[in-house]
Amino acid sequence: MHKLKITEMNRLNVEEFKHAKKIPLIVVLDDVRSLHNVGSVFRSSDAFRVECIYLCGITATPPQPDIHKTALGAEDTVEWKYFKNTLDAVQELKENGYFVYSTEQVENSVKLQNLKLDKDRKYAIVLGNEVKGVKQEVVDNSDACLEIPQFGTKHSLNVSVTAGIVIWEFAKQLLIK
């Protein structure tokens, strides 16, 4: 097997990315404190052509060296918007026809392996703070909650790992033919 060079991967350039078809998904970061996690979410969002990232509350916004360190330029390709309050972001999304999932462990959550998306709908996923998760008021105002089943001793995954797993599932169902 030949390991591909960057020049052999036929990746989009920034201008091509901006005009490329995106998955109808907005990622909402609810008080994510680590700039490295924010950068990682940008990078995963670029990889799977997420429509936009909403940065809320204490979540840092570009330009920031520590976001760039993990985003590697994805903060320049993926659209983003800042909201002081995550609930305002959720309300705007719902007003614009998005079905909002909070990614959180709650009663009656949808297990990720059981998620069935409609290609004609628009979606948003809310990812929460590294310690406290998604705020209860945001969970209460979401349409549903998604949960990644876990089988070890820990009760949660890093927010950037969660983002990658969940965004990939949305891409599989909404982008890949």
Low-confidence stretches: none
pLDDT averaged residue by residue: 96
Helix content: 25-40%
Helix- and strand-based class? alpha/beta
Compute the number of helices. Answer: 6
Largest sheet: 7 strands, parallel
Query: Which strand-content bin applies to the residues?
Result: 15-25%
Distance separating the two termini: 26 Å
Shape: globular
Biggest β-sheet: strands ordered side by side in the sheet:
3-2-1-6-4-7-5
Give the tally of β-strands.
7
What value does the Rg take, in angstroms?
16 Å
The ordered string of helix (H) and strand (E) elements is HEHEHEHEEEHEH
Walkthrough of the structure:
The structure is a single chain. With 177 residues, the protein is of the alpha/beta class. Helices cover 32% and strands 21% of the residues. It has 6 helices and 7 strands, in the order αβαβαβαβββαβα. It has helices spanning 14-19, 35-47, 65-71, 86-95, 136-140, 159-174; strands spanning 23-30, 50-56, 80-83, 98-103, 110-111, 122-127, 144-147. Helix 2 (35-47) links the parallel strand 1 and strand 2 (50-56). The model has no long low-confidence stretch (mean pLDDT 96).
